[in-house]
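It would be a great kindness if you could assist me with a short task in structural biology. A protein sequence and the C-alpha cells that stand for its backbone fold form the material at issue. I should value your view on which stretches of the chain appear to form regular backbone elements. The record follows directly beneath this note.
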Amino acid sequence: MTWFPWSESIKRRACRYLLEHYLGSYLQEKLKLEQLSLDVYHGKGYVQNVQLDVNAVNEALSHLHLPFEIVHGSIGSIAVYMPWSALLKESCEVEINGLNLVAQLRQSQNVDFSSMTDSFCNSLKNMTTSMEFAEQCFNEVFE
C-alpha cells in the first residue's frame, strides 16, 4: 500500500480524524497528533496504549441490558490503514489489538437478547459508506 505524496502533517491529521470518528467517544482522552506514528512504506498510522472511557462504553451498551458493566478498559494498539493512492475507491481499515476489558456483574441479571439483536441490526444500517466517510475526512482535514 503506497501513500499519496501528501505532507506528513496532513496524513497525521487524516489518521487522527479516522480514529476520532469511529472511536473517539470511547477514548478517555482526545488523541494528540504527537501520539500517532506513521509507517509511510505500509500506509499505516498507529497509536499505542490507549485508555477507554468506561462510562461511555457502558452508556453505549446500556440499552442491551447486559448482566455486567465495564470497570476498566484499554487498547494495546490501534492501527489505521489508509489507501492514499485510491482513497475514494478503496476502504480504510481500523485494526484494534490488545483490547483489555475488566467487567463486574450488575445487581440485575435480566438480559434482553431481542433488544441486543435489534440494536446490532440498527447499528449496521447507520454505518457510513466509504464515499461518505472520505468526503467527511477531506472536509475535516483540509479545513
User: Anything to note?
Assistant: Strands lie at 37-39, 44-51, 68-81, 93-105. The chain has four helices and four strands. The helical segments are 8-23, 54-61, 113-125, 130-141. Residues 8-23 form the longest helix (16 residues).
